[in-house]
Amino acid sequence: MKITRRVFIGTGAAMTTVAIAELGKSKPGLAQNGTINLYSSRHYDTDKALYDSFTKKTGLKVNLIEGKGDELIERIRSEGANSPADVFITVDAGRLWRAQEAGILQPVSSSTLESKIPDSVRSPENLWFGFSKRARVIMYNKDKVNPSALSTYEDLATDKWKGKILIRSSSNIYNQSLVASLIEAHGMSDAESWGKGFVSNFARPPEGNDTAQIKGVAAGIGDIGIANSYYLARLKKSNKTEDQAVAEKVGMFFPNQDERGTHINISGGGVVKTAPNKEAAIKFLEHLVSPEAQKIFSEGNNEYPVVADVSIPQVLTTFGEFKSDPVNVSVYGKLNAEAIQLMDRVSWK
Ligand SMILES: [Fe+2]
Question: Lesser CB count within 10 Å: N end or C end of the chain?
Fold first, then answer.
């Protein structure tokens, strides 16, 4: 158990409060009140184990403030210099880029983070780091599609998929990042031609989230859908028999395996620019790349660990191994505005 004692030090008329953690492993001065403030858009029950393991290791507690990613960015921005936020965690490199552009993150120098997290899944300026990966894949109806007919994202713009593709709207950041990856791979002009063909193949105007696309594929509304890998894993693991029935009908295909690899994205985070407990915040990020935390972090949302040699969640082993597009995920942020404009021009609703 950790006991915190407050000591009042008089400096003339002013009184300063210093919290000294006496027992446990916490170090005086590492964090005010022995607590870090984590602003996170993750909301998985398993994350509690993540925080408990950090507390056990360091004696530091985690005070969790939850919200949607974009709302938390705005909250930290509006709190300004007085923000209690130490660490910000969210999903999609496109959104981490928004946090970077909003000026709420600071670069972190940590040999642990730099050696354990591959270059491609962290900001080149070390403003944010990926802690788990998700693949944006093709979900296909096993009764209607032979996977040998599937190949690349590029192929989805050809006539053979006319009226067969399900995908959510262009306002969704996962799709914006996917389109950004196509702009990066082919240039704007070719990516836009692809976009025109792709949109003309939609089975219906975009509606619903990634789960809705998978359910649509199972129901035969479209032959194939685009969704993040963990959505199918979640349905597979669901206690509801109707979810399991959906997952049973749908196969997962990793596109572009003979080329640059499948489009991946990250869950990630960084240290807030005004972090009152910077040193402890860095310790927390370093904890997230420990084998123990990598397992919990990736399992929380059925994602792939970023650190090599950490075993992947069991449910993902059934999908097999795949090659990832090695492009640095910060590109998705850099090209986000262009991706949105492209999607608008090709009438992707
Ligand atoms: Fe998601």
Answer: N
